[in-house]
Predict the 3D structure of the following.
Amino acid sequence: MNKETAPLSPHIQIYKWQFSSLLSITHRMTAVINIIAFGLIILWVVFLSLGPELFIIFQNFLSSFIGKFLLIGFTWSFCYHLLNGIRHLAWDFGYGYEMKTANISGAAVLLLSFIFTTLIWVTI
Amino acid sequence: MILSPVKKWKLQRLTAIILIPLLVWFLYSFLILVYKDYSSAIDFFDNKLNSILFLFFIVFVALHSKIGVGEIIEDYIHSPSLKKFLNTVALIYSILMPLIGIISVFYIIIV
């Protein structure tokens, strides 16, 4: 296909910021964050397979302020992407397109992502 | 692996549905391990069900994220050469990460 004539959707800069678009871009940002978290999970398993001495070094890092900050952030990112992903799947099956419904489900996703993160970290 | 856009769309949704219970399981049982001692973590993987769920989890995450990141690259990166480079990086990452994970889990179980 000719590059000049290929159809392109308008770039994000021209859209007015709305609650729905903010949630949508957050879905993509959490996707990228989750991929980084995935690397950390794999690294954790690698350290575990290398024996107790190295495992403790990695665990000490995760227990530090930066480590905890990262883990709590990653937990929220996973929770958000999971909940908003379910919202996306509902749309794919044809549900929840009403403006009011979409706003309510969006607010619910945001609220629940923080509640779930808190619940997980309180039980740990 | 080159898939048609329709197949990619379907596979992205299928992997998403499979990942819902796997991610809930992961957040619930795996995060607890982070601050437990070495032997608890080893015991976790000695349980076959945990190992199998973990392996499924990492393979589906790799698949799901490769398709998703491909979509993000397609939407925001306009230079064809940069697009190709980033897609290659994403492909290597999505193969290498689960592969390292699988090898590590087998090493934990066997040793």
Remarks:
- The CA atoms of residues 57 and 110 of chain B lie 20 Å apart.
- Chain B has a mean pLDDT of 94.
